[in-house]
TrEMBL record:
It holds the Pfam family SepF. This is Cell division protein SepF. HAMAP family: SepF (MF_01197). Cell division protein that is part of the divisome complex and is recruited early to the Z-ring. Probably stimulates Z-ring formation, perhaps through the cross-linking of FtsZ protofilaments. Its function overlaps with FtsA. Signal peptide: none annotated. Keywords: Cell cycle, Cell division, Cytoplasm, Septation. It comes from Clostridium tetani.
Length: 153
């Protein structure tokens, strides 16, 4: 009985053997009459759970949201777009510098909590990308040099 309790404790802790054997109880009379030896086959039990492998690459193109906030209250909409998996481009140039800094601080925290990235393209223009999107630095340089963000000039 003590062996059963010990086996249960070891099984709970994950320390039990991976192989268990079935025990056969045979009458001794039958063994004397048979010339064959008894064979035992192991029953294999695994305590490890089989995990599913899921591909994280998606074939869909992420959506892009371009926001030019006029007040700090629009920060919630920016964060909602980011939570929805959209790439968000924020132009905070026309905001008061203190309000713009508060907005950037807030979206920076939201981006961090969602494991995304926040990158400044030009002064006052930021790209927020969710965790499943990577922004190529070469693309940022091309956009910046070609004047793609001409609304700030």
């Amino acid at each position: 009985m003590a062996g059963k309790v010990l086996n249960k404790v070891m099984g709970f802790l994950g320390l039990e053997d991976e192989y268990e054997y079935e025990e056969y109880y045979e009458d001794t009379d039958e063994l004397e009459n048979s010339s064959e030896s008894a064979e035992f086959e192991p029953i294999i039990h695994s305590n490890k759970k089989q995990g599913k492998v899921v591909s994280i690459h998606s074939t869909s193109t992420p959506k892009v949201s371009i926001v030019k906030p006029k007040t700090y209250d629009e920060v919630v909409d920016i964060c909602d777009d980011l939570k929805d998996g959209k790439i968000v481009i924020v132009n905070s140039i026309e905001l008061d510098p203190k309000v713009g800094q508060r907005l950037v601080d807030f979206v920076s925290g939201a981006t961090y909590s969602l494991n995304g990235t926040l990158e400044e393209i030009e002064k006052g223009i930021y790209i927020l990308s969710p965790s499943n999107v990577e922004v190529d630095s070469e693309l940022k340089n091309q956009l910046s040099s070609k004047g793609m963000f001409s609304w700030n000039r």
